Amino acid sequence: MNRRERFLAAVEGREPDRPPVTAWVHFLSDHLSGADTAELHLKFLREYDWDIAKLMNDYRYPVPAGLERLDSAEAMRRFRKLSLDEPAFARQLDAIRRMRRELGPDWPILDTMFDPYQQVVRNVGFAEGKHIPLHRDAALEMIGTVSDTLCAYVAAAREAGADGFFISINTAIRDGYPRGVTDAVSHEFQRPFDLRLLAAAEGTVRVLHVHGVGLDLDRVQDYPCEVISLSDRLAGNPSLAQLRERTGKCLMGGIDETRIQERPLPELRAEIDDAYAQAGRRGWIVAPGCTVASFTPQRTLRCMREHAGRL
For residue 273, what are the contacts with CB-CB under 8 A and spacing of at least 6? Predict the structure, then answer.
């Protein structure tokens, strides 16, 4: 199989020649051009021969000039629907186009996105999320406006050559855990806008990345997607075997992203073998549960790619 055939076989639950394998890192590219970002990704992809080109999106969603807090309705209402000519969007779209031209049709490209609520607080500051329930109408207007921009971006990214989207959500993180919120906040300020973004991406391969620890998967159980990704190796999160019991969708994971850069190679191989035993040959993409550290050794990533390629 070529990469696209292998990827789609996994996504659709058919028998692949082997499970596809991929990994990704943050390139700290918010200050770079689309050409520079594409080049960094292309070097990384070709060095390790990953099956899937997961394009990181380190361009931060633009915050209104001078806005530093979300502590008032007036601050929230400063958000407006943005043009895709904004550098944060134009550069990422340029990177997608360049990668599609370089990689050709048989190398699947997944663009990375973040849920609308997260797009706001990850740029202004996660601690500012505490103000959102206090200014309900303005907050809903703000997140809805961000959603409008992101849905327009999805259409443009599809046209640029993205085969799907790796959509990172914090919606399932329980209150009391890092980036967690209450059921009420999740239901009112996250869920409706997650669903809008997923609907905009319908017809592509939607990888629902359920980010974090302390997850309540019931919050997102009915989300429409083709693939589920989460940090299955982290304490308190479901394992691949438990996810298999819960869903028939393709799973993405199996490798502990928090330890990959420090563990002995035999231990890494054993982890991959264990993940294979849990997930099976069909409907599984070999991957870390989230981003791996940019200082992960070359020998470690080579070992991951080579061992997974022999499954």
Answer: none
